[in-house]
Amino acid sequence: MEIITNRDQQETAQKKVEKLSNGNNSPSPLTAPQIQVCELTTPHEFRQRMEDDVRYGLTLPQRWIPSKYRYDEEGSVLFERIIEQPEYYPAVAENEILAAQSENIMRLTNPDELIELGSGSSKKTRGLIEAMLVTGSCRRYTPIDISEGVIREAGEALTRDYDWLQVQGQVGDYDHDLGRIRRNGRRLFAIFGTTVCNYTSKAECMEFVKKIKAVMTKGDSLLVGIDLLKDVSVIESCYTDQAGANARFKLRVLDILNRGSARLSEAGFQG
Questions:
Q1: Where are the annotated segments for Disordered (predicted)?
Q2: pTM for this entry
Q3: Which residues pair with 145 in a beta bridge?
Q4: Distance between CA atoms of residues 11 and 182, nearest Å
């Protein structure tokens, strides 16, 4: 594994990958490091953004902290427990759709690179990755996540199972850092797990979509998982599971903030 911490090194590593391809998209085993990780933002910059967002959220009439800040390594483990709960229907539905449609998606979009925003464990992405091999569309997967440890672990698991796959992890916040990603031909941007539903208003959601549109160019595609209308009781059950995984996950951000100068008590927040 290579850990790349600046853009010059990232571009040098990318040239190695392109040289290995020899102009051929057909997957084949690689001899160079299969996992490369680049920081899109520095830890200090990310921490400053988080503190600014939290200050703003705690001044609102309905106090609120953005959910993305829960996803450190421990938070990501908690989220994996959530999607394993029987009440969490989005994961089941997405897996069924991807199992049936991944090859069609890859043939339709024909990307040179698959970019996943908020990749986490990348388990749900395996259908698309396997479709890369079947369709010969590409062999480059770029997961973007705020946790470097999560990207490393997911990348190692993927390259053990797919020895032809090149993983180029990007550590950062896709709300801010999309423009820092180096372009590598046609790109398929993928967003799963009802991420777009985490925004608190239609305006915020549309702003996020505009940010993606701003970095997309001719030949790029966007794949989004969006929940359909459900009875309120179904949604409430999904996010208040009996095992309590959701409650622990929602309060995870307090532990992260308290590592710094914050002194936030769980008693003042609802999980």
A1: 1-32
A2: 0.81
A3: 171
A4: 8
